[in-house]
Amino acid sequence: MLMLMVESADEPVNGKIELILEKITIPSPPVSICRPRLLDALWQSFNLGTSTVISGRAGSGKTTLALHFAELCGRYIAWYKVDAPESELRIFLQYLIASIRGHRARFGTGPLRRVLNTARGNSASNGEVIMLAEAFVHELERSPGPPLVIVIEDLHLVCDAEWLVPFFKRVLPLLPTDVHMLITSRTMPPAWRPASMSAASMSTSTYS
What are phi and psi of 193, to 5 degrees? Predict the structure, then answer.
């Protein structure tokens, strides 16, 4: 297992965080062929906005669809496979930043890093979460690099985290036009209403 060591903060007391590289690496291409109606629906969402949520039960083809789209969309892909321990906000963002930095080398080295250093993790206030979200978008706008699709796989594993809804409610409407965020999840958090978050939502079962 390959590990990546990243600084968690400027102060030595916070030390470093080890990231598992497999989690920010695009999975192997699927053997199965994705259903055309699913890809058509995803293309429509991609052309109309900057974010898409793919929901569906386990084994319904969410990751396969995302992989096929990643191969066809013509953009660089920043991939992040979420696991339950990343319900801690700082760890989640360290993985997300590392995945984007693979294509935008300066990403996460400016205001976002400073705001992240002062945030209180899972005890962060709503105001701190919104500041992190705005700093995240600001660096996407300012960091030079190619157009991106950011894939966040299995977001349902951290859907109970208190920071998740305010963070994405702020991020999704503000994403720059050269970035599309593609999220896969088995469930949608009860308070997460795609219409109010400027995200298109599609179900793998709807298009089967």
Answer: -110, 110
Q: Are 20 and 169 in contact (CB under 8 A)?
A: no
**Domain assignment present for 21:** no
* Residue 207 neighbours by CB distance under 10 Å: 17
Domain harbouring 150, CATH code:
3.40.50.300
Per the domain annotation, does 14 fall within a domain? no
41-53 in b/e burial notation, b at 16+ Cβ within 10 A?
A: bbeebbeebbbbb
Which residues, given as ranges, of the chain have pLDDT below 50? 1-5, 9-15, 195-196, 206-208
Question: CA of 90: how far to CAs of 14, 27, 93, 145, in Å?
Answer: 11, 24, 5, 24
Parent domain of 99: 36-203
Tokens of 107: 């990403």
